[in-house]
Amino acid sequence: MNFKEELNKKSELINDLLKRYIRSQECPEKILNSSVEYSLMAGGKRIRPILIISTYELFREDIEKTFIFDVAMEMIHTFSLIHDDLPGIDNDDYRRGKLTNHKKFNEATAILAGDSLLNYAYNLVLNDIINNNEIKERKLQALYELSYGTDRMIAGEYVDTEYEGKEILSEYLEYIHKNKTGALIKASVKIGAILAGASQEDIDKLTIYAEKIGLAFQIKDDILSEIGDAKEIGKPVGNDKEREKCTYTTKYGLEKAQQILNEITNEAIEIISEFDNSEFLRELALYIANRNK
């Protein structure tokens, strides 16, 4: 398997799926829909829906059964990014090398674009459950994981903003990271496993894998925020330090943060290696830890 080729293939699949749900018709809220499209199709790694598909593939091949959840997950993730960039939270001007939504349009439109994406995601999943009887119980369980992960992501975002400029205990820092970033990553892995009909034992193992790569993802973001290349990251470097945000690099220093990142990545690889056909998910853990953006 060529990991980069497979990653690009899955990313393009997600992009194609998202395009199906862009609302571009003439209507009074056309600018709002343009704002939604602007952020939803701005690029990105599409890691969360890719995790849904790749976890599902550990057990089954008919990945089309994940498609609605893939789209919904990326919509919710995009909602979180739009709101994260707002003046009242991180007040960022750039995301993925482009103006943030509120800078491209305006703050009110950006808030409503995020709201629209969140609601649209649930509408799509509920419409599929109502109109398609296949694996309905699994889909309901997966919908719960999507909703719970979103709830925890919002909680983590709040605690992150609340502790700006304040001393923080190590367990609170981990709590922020596991929820703000890790919750939707964990939900993605669990959704893929649930839709595939995995056993509870396998779901439990995959949950631990997901928790570790979710934490790894945010630690790597912390490191890149301090020493990354602004052109590659797509936004200025050093913003976290300027805002006195609580990160693994501000708490432990770069060297220790990198050590923790390496340790939990190796632990994630050890867990996922217990599954057959898990090469892509093993490589994905390394990709998260070694990426430059």
Measured distance between first and last alpha carbons? 23 Å
Q: Number of helical segments? A: 15
Tell me about the biggest sheet? Answer: 2 strands, antiparallel
**Which second-level CATH architecture applies?**
Orthogonal Bundle
Proportion of helical residues? over 70%
| Sheet/helix structural class | mainly alpha
In CATH, the homologous superfamily goes by the name Farnesyl Diphosphate Synthase
Rg from alpha-carbon coordinates: 18 Å
Share of residues in strands: under 5%
Highest-level CATH class: Mainly Alpha
Low-confidence residue ranges: none
CATH level-3 fold name: Farnesyl Diphosphate Synthase
Going across the biggest sheet, name each strand in turn. 1-2
Shape: globular
If you had to describe this structure to a student in words, what would you say it looks like?
With 293 residues, the protein is mainly alpha-helical. The chain has a single domain (3-290), classed as Orthogonal Bundle (Farnesyl Diphosphate Synthase). Helices cover 71% and strands 1% of the residues. The protein has helices spanning 3-19, 30-40, 47-56, 67-84, 101-104, 107-131, 136-162, 170-180, 182-195, 200-227, 230-233, 239-242, 248-252, 254-272, 279-290; strands at residues 94-95, 98-99. Strands 1-2 form a two-stranded antiparallel ribbon. Strand 1 and strand 2 form a beta hairpin. Helix 6 (107-131) packs antiparallel against helix 7, helix 9 runs antiparallel to helix 10 and helix 10 packs antiparallel against helix 14.
